[in-house]
Specification:
This protein has 157 residues and is an alpha/beta fold. It has 4 helices and 5 strands; from the N terminus they run ββααβαββα.
Amino acid sequence: MRAVIQRVSRAHVRLTGDDDPGATASGFDGEGLVVLLGVTHQDTAEEAELLADKIVGLRILAGERSCAQAAAPLLVVSQFTLHADVRRGRRPSWSRAAPGPVSEPLYESFVSALRRLGARVHTGNFGADMEVELVNDGPVTLVVDTDELSGPRRGGA
């Protein structure tokens, strides 16, 4: 499971193709985090819990606060393209990304885990074409992969 996490000063998601161009499916104004979440075939509900706990506790908001400390919201959007394989040719392969029947329950597990941890969570619509609008604050952008959470730090012990 891979997450791209961005510290933002506002974030909104709107379904494309919605008849009302101003319709917002979900979002918030004020400090918070946007989490783009990609799921692979091997990911588990346990990894969703681990990732949720890590993200809620990351002290990346202003004043080195976490979402838990600041009661800051999160906007979570599924994004299978995070697992693109671009090693060959010019067309990305999506074979590493789990299909909807596998990834949607894990996406929902991740969102549920955040909520159990007390987070205010906004979401897009799984599998829909969406426009995500955000103002990256800092900018602060992190990539967190569950495959790396239990291993040693890069470049050392």
